[in-house]
Amino acid sequence: MLLQKKVTKAGSVTIPTLIREQLNIPKGAAVELETKNEELIIRKHIPTCVCCGTADHVVTYAGLEICQDCLKKAREASDNNGDS
């Protein structure tokens, strides 16, 4: 599918509803932007854990995407370091 959209004065481009629905990108969701040669690539952002790289059970904590397992381990390590 080839569509043409104008860049607004603010530098924004609206992703048409049809494309968002095809890719299951809800309004307000994050997307990733990449440039390659003379192309702009926009893809759906899939949150991944900054520690282990998994995409399972990822939450945002203190501005970082982290899986619940790594968050639990970090909290336990923090608790253990506080006991010393």
Short description:
With 84 residues, the chain is an alpha+beta fold. The chain has helices at residues 17-22, 68-82, and strands at residues 31-36, 39-44, 58-61, 64-67.
Overall, the morphology is elongated
Largest sheet: number of strands, sense, barrel closure: 2 strands, antiparallel
- Whole-angstrom Rg: 18 Å
The residue fraction in helices comes out at 25-40%
Number of strands: 4
Distance between the termini: 61 Å
**Total number of helical segments?**
2
Tell me the strand percentage band.
15-25%
| Low-confidence blocks of residues | none
Helix/strand/pairing class, anyone? alpha+beta
Series of H and E elements: HEEEEH
Instruction: Strand order, main sheet: write it out.
Output: 1-2
Average pLDDT rating = 90
Structure notes:
The chain is α+β, with helices and mostly antiparallel strands and 84 residues long. Helix content is 25%, strand content 24%. The chain has helices at residues 17-22, 68-82, and strands at residues 31-36, 39-44, 58-61, 64-67. The strands form two sheets. Strands 1-2 form a two-stranded antiparallel ribbon. A two-stranded antiparallel sheet has the order 3-4.
Notable characteristics:
alpha+beta; two-stranded antiparallel ribbon; 24% strand
SSE arrangement:
Elements: H1 17-22, E1 31-36, E2 39-44, E3 58-61, E4 64-67, H2 68-82
Antiparallel strand pairs: 1-2, 3-4
